[in-house]
């Protein structure tokens, strides 16, 4: 690289990095400042973090919202892993023309926007409420069920199963294992990295999901973290320090997952182009 | 295919047993087919129940009108209403503006950054890559609220722009119809550029170095190399990122809801948000909301076909 090129490349990358990171820095710094300092554009860390956390705990139901989000995300992730990997395995290992047709039909569901589904789903869960209030409107189960199975995850598992050494399955059959036994005792342990990548993207999507919980969860005690943040953000006299503290707390789990498991995270993303 | 292999083994081991063997083979095949179907059963049922069945319901709903649960069949009236509904037309216009401005700008930016980052002699590559990707880790609601405050009239963006004398008066980022759209576009670009960049980076790493060396020997300028080699090699990724970004933009909801709430005067409202408002904010009209839903579905299908065609023709 010539000297001029070098200066150009580095300055573009430094500016892009600054722009990308600035909102994070502002969020973290503001979480330690009081509201009036935030409005005045203070960019230095302050000493109000503890006060902001106390305010937050006193004004909103932070802990229940965290618990709701955790319950929904964990349940979604476990169910999604089970259902999608069984299907991805089934489509690839027991390949047949009929199943390939079904697979292509399932893929069509990726074209359906959630906005188009929300009204009929809301009415569907409304109908269920009359019969089985346990899984109807305003229950965590209703928040989980429609988001559990995605064609993308089935596709992701099928693609990764293509590289699975199929001879091992034969060995399992010779040892007298049943088909489910082979799946759980041989396939699942071998595909650990695929599961890790799939679990990360599913958990993050579920933790951050906004529209469906907004529609289906109505009582305040069922609120998830995105709903809580959204409500705080639309308040008329916002306490900026407190709201930024809430956002930091809400972002912490996903940021931690990203930094601890960057490799799996990117593998999960890339799964869609393989 | 495992079943074929299994039967092969059987036939080599047990040749000469004639008809009984053929029978067990058939049974085995049937059993294997059943096993295969049962593996895919739960997922297929779930997709049917939570995607296809609701879409059929939405189709039926789109021919009905009324408030709440009092619906009656009105034929194609809802579809006729679409073309006369100023709010719907505004939301389509807004969504198309986001699409035409934001998607190409972001994809070019992502490609540009990935080309810069792909330079092996670059120092701190890992740092730059992580920093630019970082926005993709945030939740849509969280970053939207942050952007709402950053771009407030007395927010830090206006303060900084005024400090460096780029502007004399604060820009009405959230309350002016033009600037509000700019804010939404800036926000989405911030959130998704790094995400898309990762796809380009991984594709660039798969391009053979020797092609570039050959181009250099032939005296190609960096710009020629970019348009004649890099862009054609990246075509599948360009197609992939533009389709996913298009579908994402057509579904845009979280950002608009939390940054501008669709305002000022519907200037930033998207189709998804309009469906939400029709169903849950205004007096609910589920029938008409379902009709608007089908408008998005049709737009997604049309845009995807166009993008496939455009990418296919240049071959």
TrEMBL record, chain A:
It is a multi-pass membrane protein. Residues 66-261 form the ABC transmembrane type-1 domain. SUPFAM superfamilies: MetI-like. One of its GO terms (cellular component) is plasma membrane. InterPro entries: MetI-like, MetI-like_sf. The chain crosses the membrane at residues 7-29, 72-94, 101-122, 134-157, 194-212, 240-260. It is found in: Cell membrane. It holds the Pfam family BPD_transp_1. One of its GO terms (biological process) is transmembrane transport. The keyword Ion transport does not apply. Keywords: Cell membrane, Membrane, Transmembrane, Transmembrane helix, Transport. Signal peptide: none annotated. PANTHER family: ABC TRANSPORTER PERMEASE PROTEIN MG189-RELATED-RELATED (PTHR43744), ARABINOOLIGOSACCHARIDES TRANSPORT SYSTEM PERMEASE PROTEIN ARAQ (PTHR43744:SF2). Belongs to the binding-protein-dependent transport system permease family. This is Lactose ABC transporter permease.
């Amino acid at each position: 690289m010539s000297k001029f090129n070098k200066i150009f490349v580095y300055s573009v990358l430094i500016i892009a990095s600054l722009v990308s990171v600035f909102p994070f820095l502002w969020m973290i710094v503001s979480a330690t400042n009081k509201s009036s300092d935030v409005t005045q554009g203070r960019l230095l860390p302050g000493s109000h973090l503890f006060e902001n956390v106390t305010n937050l705990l006193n004004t909103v139901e932070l802990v229940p919202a965290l618990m709701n989000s955790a319950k929904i995300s964990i349940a979604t992730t476990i169910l999604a892993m089970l259902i999608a990997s069984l299907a991805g395995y089934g489509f690839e290992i027991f390949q047949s023309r009929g199943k390939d047709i079904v697979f292509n039909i399932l893929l069509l569901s990726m074209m359906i926007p959630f906005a188009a589904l929300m009204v009929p789903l809301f009415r569907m869960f409304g109908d269920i409420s009359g019969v089985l209030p346990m899984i109807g409107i305003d229950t965590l189960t209703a928040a989980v069920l429609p988001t559990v199975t995605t064609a993308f995850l089935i596709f992701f598992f099928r693609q990764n199963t293509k590289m699975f050494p199929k001879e091992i399955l034969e060995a399992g059959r010779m040892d007298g294992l049943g088909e489910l036994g082979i799946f759980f005792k041989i396939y699942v342990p071998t595909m650990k990295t695929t599961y890790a990548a799939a679990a990360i993207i599913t958990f993050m999507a579920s933790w951050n999901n906004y529209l469906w919980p907004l529609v289906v969860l109505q009582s305040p005690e069922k609120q998830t973290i995105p709903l809580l943040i959204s409500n705080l953000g639309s308040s008329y006299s916002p306490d900026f320090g407190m709201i930024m503290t809430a956002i930091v707390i809400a972002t912490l789990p996903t940021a931690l997952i990203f930094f601890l498991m960057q490799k799996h995270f990117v593998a999960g993303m890339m799964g869609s182009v393989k | 295919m495992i079943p074929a292999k299994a039967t092969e083994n059987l036939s080599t081991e047990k040749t000469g047993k004639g008809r009984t063997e053929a029978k067990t083979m058939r049974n085995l095949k049937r059993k294997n087919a059943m096993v295969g179907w049962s593996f895919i059963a739960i997922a297929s049922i779930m997709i049917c129940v939570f995607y296809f069945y609701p879409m059929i319901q939405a189709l039926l709903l789109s021919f009905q009108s009324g408030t709440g649960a009092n619906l009656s069949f009105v034929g194609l009236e809802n579809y006729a209403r679409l073309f006369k509904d100023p709010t719907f037309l505004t939301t389509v216009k807004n969504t198309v503006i986001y699409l035409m401005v934001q998607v190409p700008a972001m994809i070019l930016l992502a490609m540009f950054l990935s080309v810069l980052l792909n330079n092996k002699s670059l120092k701190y590559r890992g740092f730059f890559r992580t920093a630019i990707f970082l926005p993709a880790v945030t939740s849509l609601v969280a970053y939207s609220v942050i952007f709402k405050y950053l771009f407030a009239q007395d927010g830090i963006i206006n303060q900084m722009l005024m400090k460096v004398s780029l502007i004399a008066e604060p820009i009405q980022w959230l309350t002016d119809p033009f600037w509000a759209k700019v804010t939404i576009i800036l926000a989405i670009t911030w959130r998704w550029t790094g995400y898309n960049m990762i796809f380009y980076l991984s594709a660039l790493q798969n391009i053979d170095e020797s092609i570039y060396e050959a181009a250099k020997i032939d005296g190609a300028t960096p710009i020629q190399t970019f348009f004649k080699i890099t862009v054609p090699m990246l075509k599948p990724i360009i197609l992939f990122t533009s389709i996913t970004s298009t579908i994402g933009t057509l579904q845009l909801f979280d950002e608009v809801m939390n940054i501008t709430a669709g305002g000022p005067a519907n200037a930033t409202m998207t189709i998804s948000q309009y469906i939400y408002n029709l169903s849950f904010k205004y007096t609910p009209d589920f029938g008409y909301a379902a009709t608007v839903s089908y408008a998005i579905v049709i737009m997604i299908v049309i845009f995807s076909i166009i993008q496939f065609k455009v990418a296919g023709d240049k071959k």
